[in-house]
Amino acid sequence: MSDSIYESKWEEFITECNACKNCELREGASNVVIYRGNRKASLMIIGEAPGATEDEKGKPFVGRSGMLLQNLLGSVGLTEEDYHICNIVKCRPPENRRPKPNEIASCKRLLAKQFALVRPKIILLCGSTAYEAFFNEKAAMHACRGHFAEKNGYSIMTTFHPAYALRDPSKKIPMYDDMMLVRRKLDEMLAQEATDS
Ligand code: URA
To answer: What residues make up the domain containing 37?
Structure first.
């Protein structure tokens, strides 16, 4: 696909997201929060839902938990060029409650299109809502984090949600460990791609 067709597909996607009224979350939201970072990153990071700052600025993870996440990613040498970051739902739930199953289900169609555009190789799920939405099952965080799982051709790491690490700073250490594993996997994949080409 040429660059201009690819970019026009992105513009169509953004228009579709902004026009979406598939659930009631859009009514209370100021902005549809679609992504930040690289449109073609090999690493896609997925959180739960926009908070107040994200709703106001129209970008994911730009509030306090976003700053922590960005610092942790930076500590393993990952910048916005290396990742594409978004959420399971694109509109802020009232009072920052967890998104409901019907809201997650309504937003999945858009997320699937986003996956098809970005075509990541590695996915980092932040928190149990992202894990449950992706794997369609509940799991205790201690059981699902710290290792890669494979699904639909993606290598998937799950880690704590940064808001949790703001409340319990001891969780920053395992989060750092998870990000280091992601960093190493990304380096391995990019090195393999360079060898193959
Ligand atoms: N928490 C999330 O899960 N996503 C954001 O974008 C901000 C906070």
So the answer is: 3-196
